[in-house]
Amino acid sequence: VDKQVVIPVGGMTCASCSAAIERALKKVSGVKNVSVNLATERASITYDPDAVRLSEIKQAITNAGYRPLAIE
Ligand code: 9UX
């Protein structure tokens, strides 16, 4: 069963930032769908928890140069 999570992301300034995060996360195996909202500074992610851990998703955001923040 897929899970959905909304992760606040810091460090996004322009639309290319949000596009870069979407691109990076879509490359992660187990991530099914990604939508990053620049205005609200949140990434909505659907993923298969049997294939990828949330910590790996957050690491991919960090590796792309942005800051995943605590989930509310
Ligand atoms: Mo826009 Mo974001 O010029 O890292 S791509 S600020």
From TrEMBL:
Cellular location(s): Cell membrane; Endomembrane system
Highest taxon above the source species: Bacteria
Every HMA domain range: 3-69
Similarity remark: Belongs to the cation transport ATPase (P-type) (TC 3.A.3) family. Type IB subfamily.
Name the record gives this protein: P-type Cu(2+) transporter
Upper classification of the organism: Bacteria, Pseudomonadati, Spirochaetota, Spirochaetia, Spirochaetales
Shown segment, full-protein numbering: 72 to 143 of 902
